[in-house]
Amino acid sequence: MTARSGAVLHGFAALLACSVAGFVWTPGATASSGQWRAGGHEPSWSLSRTGGEMTLETDFGANRVSFAVPPAAKGDDQMVRYVTSVGGQPLEVAVKSEVCVDTMTGMPRPEQVTVTLGKKKLTGCGGDPASLLQGREWTVARLAGQPVLPVPRITLTFATDGSVSGLGSCNRFNAGYTMTGEGLSISKGMSSMMACEEPVMKQEQLFLELLERVSRFSIAADGALILHSDGDRTIITATP
User: Fold this and answer.
1) Dist CA 127 CA 210 (whole Å)
2) Are residue 125 and residue 219 in the same domain, yes or no?
């Protein structure tokens, strides 16, 4: 499992710890919303949950079946399985709480999902990508490939309301972030107006400029947050 400070079971797997009627994606999410989605490619498929019903679509929506959310059975510390039958065929949904990268978009998601319907096995990713960013404070370790000054810290906190804030080095900052199907963008923000030593101010200026260039993110094997620019260049590395 990818290491993440204070990690909890995410998304659909959290049904094991909550009631079948609902679960939380991230701190501050609506526990009764009961909404979740997973999907994969080659072949194309999607599995969604709203309330007490799940819907499986394959072949770009040409085939669609809905069924009641089956009881959860714990596989191991990170795996939850849901077993039922649809149209006389056995159906199993296995959800593992581990970072999964969408093979088409490159977007990381919090869960690896396998759907087995009869003899057909579908693999893909599930959960809300934003949950990988939220619920913790990230400490920036590198800017544009170079290590940051040991003090003061640079931090990032992604909130569920679409805001990102933290310490830029000298000043606190606040901006907005937007998740799309393929990436992450951070808007030009505001910051306080304190003055610090020149090296600290230069570092802060670089950090704020790099934030505006962010186009996507990834999660490294050690749990680090990697922010990439349009050219897929690693511009910011942060640890939880």
Assistant:
1) 28
2) no
- For the record, the structure tokens of 147 come out as 């290590």
5-38: pLDDT as tens digits: 333 233 433 333 332 222 222 322 221 236 899 9
- Identify whether residues 124 and 142 lie together within a single domain: no
Domain of 184, CATH number, reads 2.40.128.270
Whole-number Cα distances in Å, 170 to 166, 199, 203, 238: 11, 10, 9, 17
Task: Provide the edge-to-edge strand list for the sheet that holds 35-40.
Answer: 63-68, 53-58, 45-50, 35-40, 120-126, 111-117, 89-96, 79-86, 72-74
Q: Locate tokens 């404070």: which residue?
A: 137
d(CA 182, CA 171): 31
* Inter-residue contact 225 to 217 (CB < 8 Å): yes
Residue 90 phi/psi, 5-degree rounding, is -70, 140
Q: Is 193 exposed, middle or buried (0-12, 13-18, 19+ CB in 10 A)?
A: exposed
Cis? peptide before 71, omega within 30° of 0: no
Could you tell me the end-to-end alpha-carbon distance of the chain, in angstroms, rounded to an integer?
A: 15
Q: Can you list the alpha helix ranges (DSSP code H) found in 76-232?
A: 198-213
pTM of the model: 0.81
Please give the Cα distance from 27 to 137 (Å, whole number). Answer: 13
HEC sequence for 32-68: CCCEEEEEECCCCEEEEEECCEEEEEECCCCEEEEEE
Instruction: Quote the percentage of the chain above a pLDDT of 70.
Output: 86
Residues 77 and 147 in one domain: no
Q: How many domains does the chain have?
A: 2
